[in-house]
Amino acid sequence: MATTNGAVENGQPDGKPPALPRPIRNLEVKFTKIFINNSWHESKSGKKFATYNPSTLEKICEVEEGDKPDVDKAVEAAQAAFQRDSPWRQLDALRRGQLLHQLADLLERDRAILATLETMDTGKPFLHAFFMDLEGCIKTFRYFAGWADKIQGRTIPADNNVVCFTRHEPIGVCGAITPWNFPLLMLAWKLAPALCCGNTVVLKPAEQTPLTALYLGSLIKEVGFPPGVVNIVPGFGPTVGAAISSHPQINKIAFTGSTEVGKLVKEAASRSNLKRVTLELGGKNPCIVCADADLDLAVECAHQGVFFNQGQCCTAASRVFVEEQVYGEFVRRSVEYAKKRPVGDPFDAKTEQGPQIDQKQFDKILELIESGKKEGAKLECGGSAMEDRGLFIKPTVFSDVTDNMRIAKEEIFGPVQPILKFKNLEEVIKRANSTDYGLTAAVFTKNLDKALKLASALESGTVWINCYNAFYTQAPFGGFKMSGNGRELGEYALAEYTEVKTVTIKLNDKNP
Amino acid sequence: MSSPAQPEIPAPLANLKIQYTKIFINNEWHDSVSGKKFPVINPATEEVICHVEEGDKADVDKAVKAARQAFQIGSTWRTLDASERGRLLNKLADLMERDRLLLATMEALNGGKVFANAYLADLGGCIKALKYCAGWADKIHGQTIPSDGDIFTYTRREPIGVCGQIIPWNFPLLMFIWKIGPALACGNTVIVKPAEQTPLTALHMASLVKEAGFPPGVVNIVPGYGPTAGAAISSHMDIDKVAFTGSTQVGKLIKEAAGKSNLKRVTLELGGKSPCIVFADADLNMAVEFAHHGVFYHQGQCCVAASRIFVEESVYDEFVKRSVERAKKYVLGNPLTAGINQGPQIDKEQHDKILDLIESGKKEGAKLECGGGRWGNKGFFVQPTVFTNVSDEMRIAKEEIFGPVQQIMKFKTIDDVIKRANNTSYGLAAGVFTKDLDKAVTVSSALQAGVVWVNCYMVLSAQCPFGGFKMSGNGRELGEHGIYEYTELKTVAMKISQKNS
Q1: Which of B81, B150, B157, B209 to mutate to test the interface with A (most CBs of A within 10 A)?
Q2: Total Cβ atoms within 10 A of residue A151
Q3: Does pLDDT of A297 surpass 70?
Q4: ipTM value of the model?
Q5: So where does this one cross the membrane (chain B) (predicted)?
């Protein structure tokens, strides 16, 4: 497996580049049912729903459609698996970690299958699915496997004649609702810390992309997690999603998706049983390019930052602020990049951009593009759908964008790059921060002080300096303001999946 | 360690071939610079198993050069992702699992260890400890700190550098893993000197280190003797830290040499004279069993041996009766043979020392309940021995015996027994047996020991820091704490134009 340092064999780097992986031809979709207690179930209602391949617009298969009764069943199983004296509660923590490592091993074994499924279901380029989504998943499970037996409480020197310590216990049954842009990866980001901390889980994958989650269910069973520890209920937001958010026996919910739905989830969580909530929501992420930046680096990073995954990233660099002096050159080079971006069949190794996920997203993006044109931004390239090509949109660049335009304020979630101009640092800080979002920000500069100043001033959960989309399982990720609540990844994720209990033992006063 | 139902284990490997007998530097095998070799003995038969290259200062110098090179800024090892270091350690654990039978056989043969213990406890403990350390590799955090002034301040936990690690003969493989696991997780490079009595499993591990894919120079192994190879390590001007497990006497020499040379960082795991306190309200059977294993496990050759058992007056006689019965259940012999549950002591020197202490017990007036001398006429065997009516002034109550000899003494009050338990310059472990909540908490707080076991003994787990108070050692191994012992903290302070909280 390639690492960031290149292939290593016996401590010596081996000179040859690895051969490109291939997708599985005629992949049979084996897992389409609801997964509860390590077994496969039909929906209580008997209903099914279809999942489509967004590049061919063909139906891939039908999947059991869960609803509230199925969620109830799943929660029952998860609760039983969480009882004191259950196999899962009695397991050595180290052993929980070992199970997560074994799950990572199976993900490696079935990497090509999962990447193929993910590409079929999302339209993302196969090589991206293989090298980024799957790589991220494997690393995430391995990282959290290592934490399992290192989740430590404290002994505390409290006043008075007492012994005082904390236990960091699992919260209980955790609900997770995951999005369609990185279906398996976003699932791993939730499942890994949840299991590492000893919780049990009820998951709902996005209705557009249920397949890799269900395949993962088969691996959970194969590894040997006790029944009921992981349960998967495919279905729709207003039914399954709402049932999870408001379930009185679910103790915590983690949601990744739009800010609009995130608010509904938090509302339902509060109204029902005050379940703990973590949210990873949208962004309108500023990318600040200073005049002294390495311009090629900035152009490339900003380009990938907004166009990666067909623009369907919460971290999309959808407001590029370029310092006056280098603005013209930056626009010119960015347009060149955008024009060269290969759009096409995601199974073609040359493709960098596939289709948008569905008609609804497609229509929304085109509408925002039209607003850009109407409101006076300069269309540099793209600006419409690819002719006769279903859900494909041309990589689009707007320049002379101003802060009040819709394309500068609303999350587009498509291959559209708005470029804005700025004069000085104080100004761009204010403008970058004037949004309700606060997920990520990027800064391109060679100057030490500027970098540190911007890092401190930007109201974002992550600030990237001279890089973009630099995700590491070791580093926490999450949003300021309305981009989310809480953090995923890193040690910080553990706090979101544990409940702290303080134990105070009074000692006999005659033996101080 | 009490083993309830013992799981099925395979038979020891027949016809064990010793493949690796040379010095391991830069992932290659070397003869000693001097040309000398030394014999490795099977303590059950007193026969020579094989000869191993004998390292001395010149070989240590070679190893240090390799380890220093591998530690240079820009080297493969220094630029490897921390998570990849973790992957390599996990891979090493997998290879140990694969070679478990071979390693357990070799360890039992060379160390005189009962095979079932070697296979289950030693190898099991090694694999778990490696996996534990592997998990830490990419979780060693520094901090960003709100310091005064317009300064951006953070700390880095860096590897210390080249670490010398001197391993004992009682748990050769386990102590090897306890040293290299944390050291490598933090990114150090190491030079290991296994005990001269038991170099074989360390050398097999070297072959696995290479197979796992650690870069050359990261792990180096120089077998040899203390006064030569060991001393060369403690006083080397280009070694940044020395870690030693062994006797307090040698530990002092090491720390002295470290101070005299270059102030290298020192961690020591030394001897003990660990007390077990059995209260009248204890579950007596449980106390007898744990105390028994606490002193007899691995022929008494444990730094945590429960070698002073204080029993509350009212249950003293019953405790003695059951302990003596228990001590008579041993079948001595070749530890690789099925059915044998006590092996030999490691060598003649230890054997003689133990017999001498047993004689002192008799002379100084302790009551010999069973055993009391050597067993058989080949191999370094000692009969399981129990002394009662032991008083605090006797040699057997003060000196570390490191043999299958149990001392049982009587006590009246809780304050008195705490004083007596603490009345030693050692401070490694202690055991407390009681059902009373308050007693358990107050006594464990009062005991001057790095590890206090309540209603159990010798329960060790990689997640828990282990080490001694007073002259039983400096620093801790394993647990989060043990990991930090292999880091050097750097504070970085950057001037910025304006700080904001």
Answers
A1: B81
A2: 21
A3: yes
A4: 0.86
A5: none
